[in-house]
Amino acid sequence: MGPRFWFFPLDLADKGRVESLFRDGEFEAVVHLAAQAGIRHSLTSPDEYVASNLVGFVNVLEGVRACTCRHFVFASSSSVYGSRNKIPFVEEDSTDHPVSLYAATKKSNEVVAHAYSHLFHIPTTGLRFFTVYGPWGRPDMAVFLFAKAIIEGTPIKLFNHGKMRRDFTYIDDVARVVLKLIDHVPRGDLRGSEGEGGSAPARIYNVGNNRPEDLMHVVAVLEKELGRAAVAQMLPMQPGDVMETYADIDDLTRDVGFTPRTSIEDGIREFVAWYRDHYGLTAKV
């Protein structure tokens, strides 16, 4: 029999509910992907990010500390790199200058997880996801927003006048990485080779397609698959946004043999097929 998985939607800021979950369950590993996501929303609703991404994150870590979990895997974000001119982004790069509250909360998650790993020897792995898209994706992400707008004939908002590049990562590739990493448990050095406190069993990985795409190319692929031209609304750069993301995935390839399989063309084709089916649309809109 293969591994069993449980999925638990709950208010992470509700400490009692989280404590109850871990008290009643026995988990070999915990994969924590829940968060209040989105850079732009964090500009107007900071309290939601503090409650979910900070308070909720610590509540989950406390639950992990109280149980016999052998590995804690959690979602970070490429946004922790901030606005950088150096590409591709490497895990060892500085992440001390986030340019949005969302990015700051994800950086905080990495630091807090490392502290728990060091103090309580909890193996932790943080995943810096790069622009994940695909079926059942977030409706506030670019590919979903653009597809909906093109179908409805409403303008798509292209910030920085469309002059942006993103490392779009298809959901199937992301799922393969997470499954591989559950059993790739970091090891620390209790002998203290990295200082008096010892080396924490903690790792951080970039999870990306290892190839940035021009935003206008993504729009063109969507237009082709949907059979309709986009109505573009060119806008200036949005506060908290960055010009380009590009994941160096050498560590991930070395440690678990990961290689992205999905091009942006194939990924968007699969997404559009799902979108048509999910919303009952004809083959060409």
**Architecture in CATH?**
3-Layer(aba) Sandwich
| Overall structural domain count | 1
What proportion strand?
A: 5-15%
- Name of the CATH first level: Alpha Beta
Globally, the shape reads: globular
Write down the Rg. 20 Å
Fourth-tier CATH superfamily name: NAD(P)-binding Rossmann-like Domain
What letter string, H or E per element, gives the SSE order? HEHEHEEHEEEHEEHEHH
Spatial separation of the terminal alpha carbons: 44 Å
Strand arrangement, major sheet: 1-2-3-8
Q: Summarize the biggest pleated sheet.
A: 4 strands, parallel
Give the structural class: alpha/beta
Poorly predicted segments: 190-197
Q: Quick one: how many beta strands?
A: 10
Q: What is the residue-averaged pLDDT?
A: 90
Fraction of residues in H or I helices: 25-40%
Q: Give the CATH topology.
A: Rossmann fold
**Count of DSSP H/I helices:** 8
Descriptive account of the structure:
With 285 residues, this protein is α/β, with parallel strands linked by helices. It has a single domain, classed as Rossmann fold. The chain has 8 helices and 10 strands. The chain has helices at residues 15-24, 46-66, 101-120, 142-152, 171-182, 215-226, 250-256, 264-279; strands spanning 29-32, 71-77, 124-129, 132-133, 155-159, 165-166, 169-170, 202-207, 213-214, 231-235. The strands form 4 sheets. The protein has a 4-stranded parallel beta sheet, with helices on both faces. A two-stranded parallel sheet has the order 4-7. The protein has a two-stranded parallel sheet with strand order 5-10. Helix 1 runs parallel beside helix 2 and helix 6 packs across helix 8. The longest helix has 21 residues, at 46-66. The protein is globular, with a radius of gyration of 20 Å. The N and C termini lie far apart (44 Å). The relative contact order is 0.15.
